[in-house]
Amino acid sequence: MRFLTRIFLLLLVAISSAKASSAPTPGIFTLVAENDVLAGTDRHFTQGTRVSYYSGEDRSNWLTDTAELIPYFRKRGPGRESWRANLAFGQSIYTPSDITAERLQKTERPYAAYLYAGLGLLRISKDANNKPKTLDTFELQLGVVGPYALGEEVQSGWHEHISDSPEPKGWRHQLKNEPIVNLHWDRQWRKALNPLGGLEMDLMPHAGLSLGNLDTHAGVGFTLRLGLGLWKDNGPSRIRPSLPGSGYLKASDRASGYFFIGTESRLIGRNIFLDGNTFTDSHRVAKKPLVVDTQYGISMAYMGAKITLTNIIRGQEYKGQQDMDQFTALSIAWKF
Question: Assuming Cys at both sites, which of 147, 175, 178, 201 could form a disulfide with 112, CB separation 3.0 to 4.6 Å?
Answer without folding.
Answer: 175
